[in-house]
Amino acid sequence: MRPKNRNKRLGFIALGAVLLGTGALLLLSALRESTQFFYNPSEVASKNFVPRSQIFRIGGLVVENSIEQTDAFTIAFRISDFPEDIGADVLPAIIPVSYTGIVPDLFKEGKGVVVSGKLLPSGQFIADEVLAKHDENYQPKKNY
Question: Rounded to two decimals, what is the model's pTM?
Fold first, then answer.
């Protein structure tokens, strides 16, 4: 009886290892698909840019004097590269963005922003989400 129990135990251990490995692979696959980094406007404007998915993120600075309120909830603006991401001799790329919704309080000209959405063949970026970035010195307003 001992050899049968031993084989049975090894079978359960092998089955458990296979199930655990399969679960780990599924988890890693789901995490990889949901992780979404952002591209710089110069990367998006390059001729050989192909997004890995239809929806992706672009991060940059809101160009000065580019914010236009087209109607109550639709806003159009342009984003450009962060100065530290490009060299001194390179002109920054500018991507036009359109967003329908309420923008965050920190959304301002000259400030960092990350937009998530789709790029049209015309070069216009239609954003589904706008995230405003802040520096390390951010302090929330005190409501007294």
Answer: 0.67
Per residue in 58-111, pLDDT (tens digit) is 989 999 999 998 888 899 999 998 776 555 556 778 899 999 998 888 888 888
Structurally, at CATH architecture level, domain 38-132 sits in: Beta Barrel (2.40)
- 3-state SS string over 24-66? HHHHHHHHHHHCCCEECHHHHHCCCCCCCCCCEEEEEEECCCC
Where in the chain are the domains?
1-35, 38-132
Residue 67 phi/psi, 5° resolution?
-80, 125
Q: CA torsion sign, 123 to 129 to 132 to 133?
A: negative
